[in-house]
């Protein structure tokens, strides 16, 4: 059996594509005489003439016509084999993205203990940054909250998290045992540059079809807290938000009649390696709901 040299096969497909030795040699960054010698070597290995020179250039022989699609398939197969092997090789680094108030520290410590040879990096993600960070390969796995557009991603829901109302400490609703949407239907709520986020976290549109009052466009977590503390707006937030416990000028009020949000784990759909799988498994094992962690939702 012929022990084919893939380099020679690639040379042949280049000549077959260009139908000209000179142009193929230029594309391959070699000389025309050298390319001719390599093609003759391939023909010798196969025991068949593959190409004929003509006044117009080069044409495939009958044997060349038969060999060309097989040669192209052989090169594709070699490229796929190399890519699959690289993908299966144990990576030495995994980057974990996380949203505010979703704490990954225990999982990261465990992952570093299990994989001392690997570099485990953490990156904080903004409210609407998760999808882009994954698809742009800035993070390999993200601990995030839904909603999240899932095209090209693999998403695993971890647990439900209640939504609560965040208001200033002197707000008319502060201290209430609970509130419903009707209690704050006229309150302005913050907006971001993401229609899915706005629809879910502003309850917009409302069940009756009305639109939520527009609050300011915000981009930073701290900015939103300042506006709430100043009494300029209220906000629907996850029950796990802990920043409110560090400030005495804001408070949370339990919210009734509103479905919870969901905390999820997201990776690129095409990614599959042992370190990433271990990271996902460790994160799932350590991430729990506020209720499971003993953090009850209650107004101050």
Automatic annotation (TrEMBL):
It holds the Pfam family LysR_substrate. Keywords: DNA-binding, Transcription, Transcription regulation. PANTHER family: HCA OPERON TRANSCRIPTIONAL ACTIVATOR HCAR (PTHR30346:SF0), TRANSCRIPTIONAL DUAL REGULATOR HCAR-RELATED (PTHR30346). Residues 4-61 form the HTH lysR-type domain. The keyword DNA-binding applies. PROSITE patterns: HTH_LYSR. InterPro entries: LysR_HTH_N (IPR000847), LysR_subst-bd (IPR005119), WH-like_DNA-bd_sf (IPR036388), WH_DNA-bd_sf (IPR036390). One of its GO terms (molecular function) is DNA binding. This is LysR family transcriptional regulator. Belongs to the LysR transcriptional regulatory family. GO terms for cellular component: protein-DNA complex.
């Amino acid at each position: 059996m012929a022990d084919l040299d893939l380099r020679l096969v690639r040379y042949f497909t280049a000549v077959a594509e260009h139908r000209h030795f000179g142009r193929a040699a230029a594309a391959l960054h070699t000389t025309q005489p050298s390319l001719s010698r390599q093609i003759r070597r391939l023909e010798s290995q196969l025991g068949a003439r593959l190409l004929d020179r003509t006044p117009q250039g080069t044409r495939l022989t009958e044997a060349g016509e038969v060999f060309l699609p097989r040669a192209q398939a052989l090169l594709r197969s070699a490229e796929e084999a190399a890519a699959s092997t690289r993908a299966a090789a144990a990576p030495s680094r995994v980057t974990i993205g996380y949203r505010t108030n979703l704490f990954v520290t225990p999982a990261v410590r465990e992952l570093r203990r299990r994989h001392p040879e690997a570099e485990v990096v953490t990156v904080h993600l903004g409210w609407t940054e998760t999808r882009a960070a994954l698809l742009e390969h800035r993070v390999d796995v993200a601990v995030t909250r839904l909603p999240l557009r899932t095209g090209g991603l693999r998403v695993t829901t971890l647990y439900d998290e209640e939504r609560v109302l965040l208001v200033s400490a002197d707000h008319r609703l502060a201290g209430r045992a609970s509130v419903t949407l009707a209690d704050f239907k006229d309150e302005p709520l913050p907006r971001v540059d993401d229609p899915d986020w706005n629809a879910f976290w502003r309850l917009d549109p409302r069940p009756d079809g009305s639109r939520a009052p527009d609050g300011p466009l915000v981009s930073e977590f701290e900015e939103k807290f300042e506006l709430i503390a100043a009494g300029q707006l209220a906000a629907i937030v996850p029950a796990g938000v802990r920043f409110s416990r560090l400030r005495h000028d804001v408070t949370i009020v339990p919210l009734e009649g509103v479905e919870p949000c969901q905390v999820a784990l997201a990776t690129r759909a095409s990614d599959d390696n042992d370190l990433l799988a271990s990271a996902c498994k460790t994160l799932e094992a350590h991430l729990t709901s506020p209720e499971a962690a003993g953090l009850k939702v209650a107004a101050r």
